[in-house]
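Progress against Task 2.4 (sequence-to-structure conversion) is shown through the following example record, which the project officer requested during the mid-term review.
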Amino acid sequence: MSKFYVQCGPIRTIIVSTSREQACLEALDESLQNHLWIYDDPGLSNGDCRNHLMLEALVHLDPSIRVSEQGFDRDDGSLFGTPEVIDRWHRLMTGMNRLFVAAGLPPRTMQPAPVMPQASVHLPR
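Structure tokens generated for the chain above:
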């Protein structure tokens, strides 16, 4: 696993991942969490969900994602098309629900599970 510096518009994050492509996907996954509700809306088709994501990207993100193992703002970083990475992310989200249905399970809500606050542990001295 390598450390990658990923940037795209307001996204500037460091991701430890297996590849540059996977680092792009993970960085977008973090930024798209606020849009998971679209996959739970029964009135939206897969095409509607994809279009929503693409419009959000057009408004808020750069057309490409820059990934480097050296640092931010490097000209020697790899460039990936934002629409292509968003399309891949969308296919992963819709594929997850298809797998649940194929396994005979109800479609899983895409909303993130609530994070339980960590209890403070007091160890005896």
